[in-house]
Design a protein that fits this description.
450 residues; alpha/beta; Rossmann fold; Helicase, Ruva Protein, domain 3; five-stranded parallel β-sheet; 19 helices; 14 strands; elongated; binds adenosine-5'-triphosphate; binds magnesium ion
Length: 450
């Protein structure tokens, strides 16, 4: 209970004050209440609060003055105004003066709770963002993350790095596998680090790239060349996209791993190498084994230690940090100082996207946003359409929830909206909605719209 959000309630009407305090208390908040605005300012000097809820018309100092004074003295504490007069101008003036939101009396308990949750969420993401700004300045090149799944990953990287056994890194595209491979290498204190993409070269070239070749081993081999295994001796070799390693090379790699020796193409004698192998893949290797595309013995050999990089959608908490990091990187590269900032709404949007392309897609979106924002703060409209689309939906649904529409109401609105968009064409509407035409007719009859 100690880390419950603390709310200061300022309301002169005793009955209402008690009722609201009770509701908030039942909602899990820690509530203090006062009946006058000047008392509120005094309490704010003494204690810390996460949110202030204030009436507008009170004897003595009015709510408007409290909002203004708070914007000056406690800008980090959001204020929600409870007003009996629902005038739009009045509300806008309050918002300009610094109020985070307002509710018109009488209001429903659920509307109050929704407003409070929304405002507290916004405050939390702003705070996370500010903290991120401070931290990122320190380590620019590193792998960023503070979410529980990333903390677990860092912990595993630390332990895995102590061993010499092969490590298999799995994870979706763009999730940071190469960065993880580099961190394993860095934490191992070895040298050098050499990456090779197993899917980028045809089989014969890849073979000589990995193992080297003797002079005259094939046409064009006019001099002997050591391969990456030899070059990485004493260090780490990253076999990237290991799932694409041609079947014919798989036994040769297995032999190298098991014997600690390699043979250059066209040579008989074996050369000892001492190389730490890290392999990465976005494919499901187990499925590739089942499908006969990847040798099971090699799979087990590589799979001794396993690191799984979680997709970005499972660590959305890290987004403020990654955004700050990405913007710093972009700014440095294109020579912009100071780095661009992000409007809280845009940040919120970035934090609620599914990101199928993971961190790489996020950084791409930021890169584009920096261009579109052209020097000012990055706003929602600067983000790529793919990012914005996901959010419109969230926005509409959350608005429906605010209006307390029932599922049946929502369905009705949705069906009618779809019908409008297809200009009354019922077959197309049914197709769009993914329901049989009969069902659509029945619904429309129920709505009295047939
Ligand atoms: N946790 C992170 N912190 C900072 N930058 C990150 C993080 N994860 C990924 N990146 C950045 O995102 C981009 C993609 O990362 P990386 O190349 O490591 O992904 P990958 O999993 O190897 O992708 P692919 O499957 O396409 O090879 C890089 O620019 C990388 O620096
Ligand atoms: Mg990669």
């Amino acid at each position: 209970m100690s880390d419950a959000d603390r709310i200061l309630l300022v309301e002169d009407d005793e009955g209402l004050r008690r009722a609201v305090a009770e509701v908030l208390g039942a909602g899990g908040f820690q509530v203090s209440n006062v009946s006058r605005a000047d008392d509120a300012l005094e309490r704010l000097q003494e204690e810390t609060f996460d949110l202030v809820l204030t009436d507008l018309v009170m004897p003595g100092m009015r709510g408007e003055a409290l909002v203004e004074e708070m914007a000056r003295a406690f800008p980090e504490i959001p204020v929600i105004v409870l007003t009996a007069f629902g005038s739009v101008e009045g509300a806008m003036a309050l918002t300009r003066a610094g109020a985070a939101d307002y509710l018109t009396k009488p209001f429903r308990t659920s509307a109050l709770m929704n407003a409070i949750q929304r405002v507290l969420e916004g405050r939390r993401s702003r705070q996370a963002y500010l903290r991120a700004r401070e931290r990122v300045a320190a380590h620019l090149e590193g792998i960023m993350g503070e979410s529980p799944p990333m903390r677990r990953l860092f912990d595993r990287i630390g332990r895995v790095a102590q061993s010499m056994a092969p490590v298999l890194i799995s994870g979706e595209t763009g999730s940071g596998k190469e960065l993880v491979a580099r961190s394993v290498h860095q934490a191992s204190g070895r040298d050098p680090f050499l990456p090779v993409n197993c899917g980028a070269l045809p089989e014969t070239l890849l073979e000589s790239e990995l193992f080297g070749h003797a002079r005259g081993a094939f046409t064009g081999a006019d001099r002997a060349k050591p391969g990456l295994f030899e070059a990485a001796d004493g260090g780490t070799l990253l076999l990237d996209e290991i799932g694409d390693l041609p079947l014919a090379l798989q036994p040769k790699l297995l032999r190298a791993l098991e014997s600690g020796e390699i043979r250059r193409v066209g040579e008989v004698e074996a050369r000892p190498v001492e190389v730490r192998i890290v392999a990465a893949t976005h494919q499901d290797l187990e499925a590739a084994v089942q499908a006969g595309q990847f040798r099971e013995d090699l799979y087990w050999r590589l799979h001794v230690l396993h690191l799984d990089v979680p997709p970005l959608r499972e660590r959305l908490d890290d987004i403020p940090l990654l955004v700050e990091h990405g913007l710093n990187r972009i700014a440095r590269r294109i020579g912009v100082d100071p780095p661009p900032t992000v409007h809280p709404q845009a940040l919120e949007l970035l934090g609620s996207c599914p990101w199928p392309g993971n961190v790489r897609q996020l950084f791409g979106a930021l890169e584009r946003a920096v261009v579109f924002a052209a020097g000012r703060e990055i706003r929602v409209e600067d983000l790529p359409p793919s990012v914005r689309r996901g959010s419109d939906r969230v926005e509409r649904i959350s608005r429906a929830a605010d209006q307390e529409l029932s599922l049946a109401d929502l369905e009705r609105e949705y069906v009618l909206e779809v019908l409008r968009r297809v200009e009354g064409n019922k077959s197309r509407a049914a197709e769009w909605l993914g329901i049989p035409r009969r069902t659509l007719y029945r619904r429309l009859a129920e709505y009295g719209k047939d």
